[in-house]
Amino acid sequence: MNEQTKAIREQADRSSYREHAAPLYLTSSFIFDNAEQSRAIFAEEEQGNVYSRYSNPNTTEFINKVCAMEGAEAGLAFSSGMAAVFASFAALLKSGDHIVSCRAVFGSTHQLFTKLLPRWGITTTYVDASKPEDWERAIQPNTRMIFLETPSNPGLELVDLEWLGKFKEKYPEIILNVDNCFATPYLQKPIEYGFDLVSHSATKYMDGQGRVLGGIVVGKKALIDELMFFIRHTGPSLSPFNAWILSKSLETLGLRMDRHCSNALAVAKVLERHPEVEEVRYPFLPSHPQYPLAKKQMRAGGGVVTFVVKGGYDRAKRFLDALKMMCITSNLGDSRSIATHPTSTTHSKLTEEERLQLGIRPGSIRISVGLEDITDIIGDLEQALTNS
């Protein structure tokens, strides 16, 4: 079956009540038919649910859908996107290990690399995503993982997945780990290029309506098994209710992403021509410096547009305050259009120099383009630019 069909048809086993949609399994634990079954399941000789911190029919259904869409062997669900990203480090790395990462990563991921992981003797080297020679020079004898975001948040910088997959063949012991949140498995499939792990903040496009938190990591079964040990004993598990919401949302992911992408491209084209805008970044704009790469490895350009208003920080604040329809929030991937000022919010903990290295300027605005009528979205942006 096609991946979208799998996302719709994959479902937990029906109960004796013959329900059409999967029910909510709001239970902390599960009973055993007899003592021998309980022993066998705990010994992993027999498959079965034990405790919802480990697994639950709702989380299993959600995981199976994402695995089908990404082409992954196995996966695990987490309480948030950052819990998923952190687990992919904490479960697989040890003191003395080294990470190579693209410089353009989410602010909280940057804090992990620079503030938390060094406490446990894990170091990170940043490289420019578009410079293959930098990746080669950064590899050390103790490099255990390569991590990246593509497109990055919020600069929409891309990494060549095909090149990096071939590069990794020279270092089979290194884990290739990608945050695929902005693209979603509908627009891009890193596992096809040889990646070992793919993580998502399911809070974003997988939910798509700003309702629940969630995260997921999928990839090679041997690595996911190591993550299972971590999740069993540290507890960053996804709630069954959130898993139920996310699983149902995946059934419309393709439809929603088509609309997000078409609206975002239209917004990018309008902003690129606007006299009050200095720069626009969108992967499927021909002016994007990596436009050919975006066309090669992505189905469409995604739902996020980043641009720089003239007038710097003060103008950016006035622009946000002048918006009438759009929400000002740090989230993205919602059905409703959202405006964010990265300098003062999501990336405020970075130094100004670090932000500039990521292309985040004082006047940078990130727009998560929603599903509203495109004329209303553009109208709100244009009036805010005029009235600020």
Task: Write structural notes for this entry.
With about 400 residues, the protein is of the alpha/beta class. Helices cover about 40% and strands about 15% of the residues. The longest helix is centred in the last third of the chain and has 20 residues, at about 255-270. The radius of gyration is 21 Å and the shape is globular. Strands 1-7-6-5-4-2-3 form a seven-stranded mixed β-sheet, sandwiched between helices. A five-stranded mixed β-sheet has the order 8-9-12-11-10. The mean pLDDT is about 95.
Overall structural class, as computed from helix and strand content, comes to: alpha/beta
Poorly predicted parts: none
Shape: globular
Instruction: Give the biggest sheet.
Output: 7 strands, mixed
Taking the alpha carbons of the first and last residues, their distance comes to: 50 Å
Approximately how much helix is present in the residues? 25-40%
Average pLDDT reading: 95
Please summarize what this structure is.
It contains 15 helices and twelve strands. With 388 residues, the chain is of the alpha/beta class. The radius of gyration is 21 Å and the shape is globular.
